[in-house]
Fold these 3 entries.
Entry 1:
Amino acid sequence: GGAPNAPCTGIWLSFAPLARPTEVEFEFTMNGKVDMPNACVVFTQKEFNGALPECKVGVQFTVRGGMQLCGGNSQLVRISNDGKIQNDKWNKVLLKIDWNDKVVVGQVDTRGKGYAPAIQTVPFRDNACEGFGYLYIYNTDVQATCWFTSLRIKQEQGDAR
C-alpha cells in the first residue's frame, strides 16, 4: 500500500532461515506521480536500519517512470518497453532469480496478455547477498499511492541455506 501525504509508507516481512527464492511474482497498480521511486519491492539479507546499501540488497524493483530493477553499482535497468506506468492499470511482474550467477530476469505484463519476453538480465544490487532475510514493499513519494493484489514467492525444495 501507501497512504496519501504520508512519506515512505509500506510493509515488511522477515524470513528465517534466509530464503533463496527462484521466482517472485506480484501484481500492482498505482495512482499519482510516477516519476519518483514507488511501488518498491526490495529483498535484502539484513534488516534495514537507516541505510539500504548496508542491508546487502539482492533484488530491488521500483517504478520510476517505468518498471526497473536496481542492479550492481545501483544502476537502474528498465525491464519493460511500455513506457510510463498508467494510473489505475494493473501490472504483473515476474522476477526469475538465478542464485549461481546472482542475476535477476524480469518480465512484465502491462496489458493482460501474458508476459513479454525479457529484455534484460540484471545483476544483484549487492553480489555479497547470500539469501533474503527481509522483504520490504513501500512508496517513497507522498504524491503516489500503490496497491498490491498478489505476491507469490517460489523457492525450490532444498534451496534454503
Entry 2:
Amino acid sequence: VNELIFPFSQHDFIGRVSVDLSNFRNNTVYILIYNLYKTAKCEPRRGAAPLGSIKIRLRLELEDERTLLLSNFELPASVYVNVESKKDFNVIHKTVVGNVDLKRYGLGNINSYVNELWSYLVVYYFLEDAFVGLLLWRGRSNLTLPVPLIPSFTVQW
C-alpha cells in the first residue's frame, strides 16, 4: 500500500475513549459522542486538540443491577490475548493502555500523578468541612423563631 496516497492502514491508532457505565440506566438507549485523545488515563485535554470523535449507541441490558454494583468492589479477571504479529500486538496494547505509557519513568508522568493527588486533596477539604458541619451542626447556624406574647395573668385565692 502506498503510504503517500493512503496514510492510514486498518491497524493505525487514531485515539482512545473510556466510557463509565455507572452513569447509565437499565433499558435506556443513549446516543453518545466522545472526542478521541491519545490516552484516557492522563490529562491530554489541556490545550491538546482531539484526534477526532466517535459516536456510540449504547443500551444496557441488565438482569440484576445489584450484581453490577457489587462487581465494582472486586478486581477484574485477567484476560490474556495472543497475537501472531507485532503490529497486531501494538494495536491491542494501545487500545488497552493508550498511547501514553504511565509506567514509564518521566517528568510528565510524575506531574500527572501530582495533579491527581492535588485534586484529591481539594475534595478532602470539602469532605472534612462537611463532616465537621455534620457533627457540630448546632453551632453552625442561628435559627430564630417568633414566639407569641402571652399576657400574664394572676390567680387570686
Entry 3:
Amino acid sequence: PALDWSQVAGAAPVQELARTPIAVLLLMESPDIVVSGPRLEWCLPDAWGKLRDFPRDFCVTSPMFGVQQAGNMQLAFYPNGSRTAELDHCTVVLTRGPDSAGIKFEFLVNGRGIGPKVCLGRRYLGDYPLPFDKTDENAPKHVVVTMKVLDILGA
C-alpha cells in the first residue's frame, strides 16, 4: 500500500513540500514585454531591418524585471553580436543585481535556443544564430527574445 505521509511523525504537510511556483515580475509596465509565470517574452520595438544595421557591440536593453530571490535583472540584445561573438551571431546578455540567487534558464531568439544555462554571478552572455537569414531583407520582421526561468538555485 502507498505510504500516507500525514501519518508519519515529523513529516511536513504536502503543501509545505511543494515549492512556490516561479513567477517573473516586471518592475515597471512595458508594452514590449509579456510575462506568463516563469516565462518572459520581450518583443524588441524596432524591426529587424533597423536592428541589423546597428554596429557590432551595440545593444538594446529590456525593462527591468525579477523573480523571487533574484530581482533587478535586465536583458541586452546585441543584433550583430558583442565584440567577441562569431560572425552571423547575435548576443543576449543577462545582467543581475548583487546578492541574487543563482538561476537556471533558457533563452530563445525567435524560438531558437542553445539549451539551458546557469547564472551564478552578475552576468551571463550567450551567442545565438541571427534571428533571420539574409533573404527577405525588406520584410518588417520583429525579434522576440524569450527567457524561461527553469529553477532558482539555493531557494
